[in-house]
Write a structure and sequence with these properties.
By secondary structure, the chain is an alpha/beta fold. The protein has one domain: Phenylalanine Hydroxylase (Orthogonal Bundle), CATH 1.10.800. The protein has 13 helices and six strands. The strands form two sheets. It has a four-stranded mixed sheet. A two-stranded parallel ribbon has the order 1-2. A hairpin with a 2-residue loop joins strand 3 and strand 4. The N and C termini lie far apart (62 Å). The structure holds 7,8-dihydrobiopterin and fe (iii) ion (FE). Fe (iii) ion binds next to helix 6 and helix 9. The site of 7,8-dihydrobiopterin (HBI) has 10 residues, from helix 5, strand 2 and helix 8.
C-alpha cells in the first residue's frame, strides 16, 4: 500500500501579489483541487486558546459596527473555546444554504478558488497565525476565514452571490479578467460596507476579522466611502497589507447578487478601455457617503 505521500506530489504553493513573501502552509499534502485535510487533532491547546482570544476580542467589538446579518450568524461557528471542526460546521452550513467548508493549505490559485466557490465549497486555511501575529497577519489564516467569511455564508442571498461570483470567476479566467474580478471580491466580500437605517455597517470579512480596521473603516476620516459601482470597483487598485483608502457601500446584499447576474464580458471590455484608478482616487461621478 503506497502512502498518499508518495502518490500525491502535492500542488504548487501560492503567495500574494509580487511573491516576495514566502508561501505559508503545507502544500505538499494538498490534493489536485488544492483541498487538504484539516487534521483537527494536530491543533495544540495554545492554538485553540489563540483562536478563542481572537474570537472573543472581535465578538466584543461587533455591536454597532458589524451588520446585523453577520451578528445573527456568528454563533453558528459553535463554541469559541476551540477551533471548529470543519466537518461538523459543514453539516450546519449545508442545511442552511448548501455550502460547506473545505480545508486548504493557504492561498490557492484563482482558478482553483473560483472553482470551489462555484461548487459552494468555501476554502478555509487550516493553519492559525503565530501569537506574535495576534493583531495582524497578511495571509488569510483559519481565524480570518472562519470568523470573517463563514457567518455570512449562512445568509441565503449572500451565499447565492458567493456562488455566482465563483461561476463568474471561472468565465473570467478564460478572459484573463481575474484582476478585475479580484477587485470586485476585495471591495465587497473582503472590505465591503453596507448602508442601514442605523448608519454604515461592515460586512467584509477582512474588516470583520481585523481588530483595527473594523473601527477604522467606519469611523476614521482618512478613507473615503463611495457608492457601490461594479465598473468603478473593477478599475480601482487595492492594498493587501494596509488599511484601505476607499471602501465601497452597498444598499443590500441583493445589490451584490444582481451585479453578478449579467455576463461580465462587455463590462471587462469597457473596464479594460478605461484607465486604472489608485486606491484613493476620486471621480466626479462618485457617490460619496
Ligand atoms: N485563496 N485560500 C484562499 N483564500 C482566498 O481568499 C483567496 C485565495 N486565492 C485568490 C483569492 N482569494 C483572491 O485573488 C480572489 O479575489 C480570487
Ligand atoms: Fe478573505
Amino acid at each position: 500500500m503506497t502512502s498518499n505521500k508518495s502518490v500525491n506530489q502535492g500542488v504548487a504553493p501560492v503567495t500574494y501579489g509580487d511573491g516576495t513573501r514566502p508561501p505559508r502552509g503545507d502544500y505538499a499534502s494538498a490534493r489536485a483541487d488544492y483541498t487538504c485535510d484539516q487534521h483537527w487533532e494536530r491543533y495544540t491547546p495554545q492554538e485553540h486558546a489563540l483562536y478563542q482570544r481572537l474570537y472573543e476580542r472581535q465578538a466584543a467589538q461587533l455591536p454597532g459596527l458589524a451588520c446585523e446579518e453577520f451578528i445573527a450568524a456568528v454563533s453558528q461557528l459553535g463554541t469559541p473555546q476551540e477551533i471548529p471542526r470543519f466537518d461538523v460546521l459543514s453539516v450546519r452550513l449545508k442545511q442552511a444554504t448548501g455550502w460547506e467548508v473545505v480545508a486548504v493549505p493557504g492561498l490557492i490559485p484563482e482558478e482553483a478558488f473560483f472553482g470551489l466557490l462555484a461548487q459552494r465549497r468555501f476554502p478555509v486555511t487550516a493553519w492559525i497565525r503565530r501569537p506574535e501575529e495576534f493583531d495582524y497577519v497578511v495571509e488569510p489564516d483559519v481565524f480570518h476565514d472562519l470568523f470573517g467569511h463563514v457567518p455570512l455564508l449562512f445568509n441565503p442571498v449572500f451565499a447565492d452571490y458567493m456562488q455566482a461570483y465563483g461561476a463568474g470567476g471561472l468565465k473570467a479566467s478564460r478572459l484573463q479578467a481575474c484582476e478585475h474580478l479580484a477587485r470586485l471580491y476585495w471591495y465587497t466580500v473582503e472590505f465591503g460596507l453596507i448602508a442601514t437605517p442605523a448608519g454604515l455597517r461592515a460586512y467584509g470579512a477582512g474588516i470583520l476579522s481585523s481588530t483595527g480596521e473594523l473601527r477604522h473603516s467606519l469611523q476614521s476620516p482618512a478613507p473615503q466611502r463611495l457608492g457601490f459601482d461594479v465598473e468603478r470597483i473593477m478599475r480601482t487598485q487595492y492594498r493587501i497589507d494596509s488599511f484601505q483608502g476607499t471602501y465601497f457601500v452597498i444598499t443590500g446584499f441583493e445589490q451584490l447578487f444582481e451585479a453578478t447576474a449579467p455576463d461580465f464580458t462587455p463590462l471587462y471590455e469597457r473596464v479594460a478601455g478605461l484607465g486604472e484608478l489608485s486606491a484613493d482616487a476620486r471621480l466626479a461621478s462618485d457617490t460619496v457617503y
